[in-house]
Fold this sequence. Notes:
The complex is a heterodimer. Chain A contains five helices and eight strands; from the N terminus they run E-E-H-E-E-E-H-E-H-E-H-E-H. Chain A is α/β, with parallel strands linked by helices. Chain A has one domain (13-191): Rossmann fold (3-Layer(aba) Sandwich). Chain B is an alpha+beta fold. Chain B has one domain (10-153): Beta-Lactamase. In chain B, strands 3-2-6-5-4 form a five-stranded antiparallel sheet, sandwiched between helices. In chain B, helix 1 (10-27) packs antiparallel against helix 3 (112-133). The N and C termini of chain B lie far apart (36 Å). Classes of the chains: A alpha/beta, B alpha+beta. At the A-B interface, strand 1, strand 2, strand 4, strand 5 and helix 2 of A face strand 1, helix 1, helix 2 and helix 4 of B. Strand 1 of chain A pairs parallel with strand 1 (6-8) of chain B.
Amino acid sequence: MTMLNYAKKEIICKIVYYGPGLSGKTTNLKFIYGKMDTQYKGKMIAIATETERTLFFDFLPLDFGKIKGFTTKFQLYTVPGQAIYTNSRKLILKGADGIVFVADSQIDRMDDNKSSLKDMALNLREQGLDIRNIPLVMQWNKRDLPNIVPVEKLEETLNFRKVPTFEGVAHKGIGVMSALKTVIKMVLNKLGG
Amino acid sequence: MFKGSKVLQPEDLNQMNNIIEKLKTQSKCLVVLIVDDSGHLITNTESDPSIDPILLGTLTAGNFGATNELAKLIGEAEFTLVLHEGNKENIHMLAIGDCGILVVIFANTTPIGLIRMYSQKSVTALLPYLEKMQVEKKASKKDLPSDEDLENLFNW
């Protein structure tokens, strides 16, 4: 949940990247880390296995400096996508202010996308959060690969809330910053009532 | 379950800072941090510049959360204390109710009993302030960046 620190004149929000294993959540964070000027970013950490699969979470702190008298900070997390890590995902969702759901556009990953979305709804509920009203955007990642599902089908199958969606090729940065910017705006708009 | 924003007022932060400074002096530890349960750093005593308090806070919350899942596996409601022992320095983490974690980094030359005793006292003193932070409150729009501010911030 957002922390409004009136002593330090600081607002801190938590954004979580969710989605099935290998959908590109860590790639999103790595691109953001590479794109941001040093003044806006802190140290990125990744708790991963030897084969670079996320084991617990990745973390990237962003600090946009003082705007309107308050320093605005965002802490970006990814969850481990593999099905067995559901307890870890639950922990990372604790206090989330906004979510970027990263779906894999490939035809043979559609069942995984659907399972991950369902898993997210359940895990949010366990943290007292509601998938129906938390700030959420969706990224249809891997649009550069063959054998992908048409965007219309992804929208129909996964975007039950009609939230903003972005076609993505995360390793090239396509759809990465626009998804981040949109979820940040949604979080701040909700925070401001 | 609490779902609103956490609000920290200047006078409460001062009180919490006084408590952790006292803990640092009495226990002869190196650094003290207060972290909330979602990983946000609330405050910390001055530390070695090589220690990143934001990262430390995030990893602490993750570590503590994982430890509590372990507790549930063996039928415990929670583990309130986590201790990591190193060659030269150690980390002692103690739950502040269900609102946060008190993190103390101390050298091997400092007796663990001292850290435990003063940490426990500090947790009792800190708990009312952390509970007070959990209020349903919206931020004032004038304090928040507008959509236009964000667009102009940098080249997205």
